[in-house]
Amino acid sequence: MLEQFIYLDNAASTRLDERVLEAMTPFFFNKYAVATSQFGYTLGIDAKDALDASRATLARALGARPEEFVFTSGSTESSNLAIKGVAMALGDKRGRHLVSTRIEDFAVLHSIHALEKQGYRVTYVDVDEHGRVDLDQLRQAIAADTILVSIQHANQEIGTLQDMAAIAALCKERGVLLHTDATHSFMRAPLDVSQVPVDLVTVTAHLLHGPKGIGGLYIREGTPLAKWMDGGYQEFNLRPGEENIPAAVGFARSVELVTPEETARLRAMRDALTQRLLEIPHSRLNGHPEFRLPQNTNVSFRFVEGESILLHMDMRGFAVSTGSACFSRSLEASHVILGIGGDHERAHGSVRLSFGRYNRPEEVGLAADALAEIIANLREISPLGKES
Amino acid sequence: MPLPYSETVMEHFKRPHNVGRMEDPDAKATEGSPACGDMVAVYLKVDEAEKRITDIKFESYGCASNIATGSIITDLAKGKTLDEAKEITWEQASEALGGLPPIKAHCSVLAVDGLRAAIQNYEERHGLIKERKPTTLEEIRRRLKRVMNPVVGLDLVRTKLVTDMEIKDGRVRVVIDLPANHQFANNIREEIVEKIEPLWDVHEVVVEFTEVTSWLTSK
To answer: Do domains A6-15+259-380 and A18-256 have the same CATH topology?
Structure first.
């Protein structure tokens, strides 16, 4: 085991905060009943209270009311529930057309593909070179039979934030429901549903030093949504299955622990690192220089390949990510880099670095030094980028 | 779970053998392209009398398996005659590395192709190309076996992606069972053309794909 281990892949998952575990522990060993037992015995009432309190905390964090927040197993389930739930509720009544982008995360993209196979029509609105949605195209894409627009709040790879206020205003004006995947932006970039008229919002706990296996979906009151997983009557009869109360409590606690000061600290580290990385020759920033997640940077380096960079970084004790095809299970280059008009070469040499609570400022310099050296070494053995 | 790579792969990745550019090589070749991902360059020094590889170097723009296979094929080829080196297969390279994950098999094919192309480059420069035979469907099939289906890491023929092929008056037509707008369609087309076009009696290579699927559409 290496002496130092520097984790810069907080967009993939984060280390659990001990205070979150502490809040969760009683619900494994003492108050382990499920909320449906509330009419039977005291332990069930404790469980129901904890679930209600957690729901209230999460709803408040979004500017919502508690009965508008449903717990799920994570953001994949939340986005499936939102997209397929609306399609099932409105497909026969209002229409079978959806609008989205090509740079969504797979939970959204593949939910939409599944509907497309069932005969739904989909319009993918273009994004610009930084990954921001073309609002004019969005306006034109919405048709009489459009039932849902699904556009992410922040991108999972390049960190670009959408102008959600403008998108929501446009959808509201056209009377179309709007879902946004806020998996990566929740608590790090503001989204208040009492101000911004989005109808459905996907969130998750494990990117905020909370537990894995718990997420949620904000559902604006009155939003038509069909229940499509069959079981009991939990979660306002929308999401059956016994509630994961320890995780729900942990999710709420993880949200309470995020502060604007902490986010500012991540942003400062991110900015320092971005600056250092862009000093490396033949590098370019992926994503928007200004409208982006405070904890994310993503840079492409020419003439080198991402998986090789990752393995060398790992040997030196750093965890980072890449959009290179060689790194993906399907051997497909990042659909996000391709979606913003990048080519395979740009995806090939892209590196994503994402910060979290446990990163320290001195890690910025260590990571930048290591990356600069590894890239120089790999360029040394590359047939590209030299005078021939 | 350990890394998906064998210890031998990691050793060659960390400290590749015979790596770098060669000054004044007797032959050289580049396989792959930045557009489709990995790329490897191979340089040779050849003893003219014995037709033996006295020195060999490679460069890689690629992942760990690409670097490791470049390293191992240069080890395998060094000291061999050109005819012996031509016989090195990607299976041998992969075996010498203690195996590669199936999805990475194409990396070893690329390295072996680089070596063969460098040898061919030497033979062409030194007038060693033997008698020319007309191209047969067998030869086309043999070459298509060197084009990987990137989705599964096995060749196009084995994964039954080639649904039809024909040769007529120097025009080769290959039909591939993938949507024309599949992410890899262009890469596959380029690779097929690259493998078949150098045949002396082929003057046109046409690669056809099947229908367009709308959800695959990307810019």
So the answer is: no
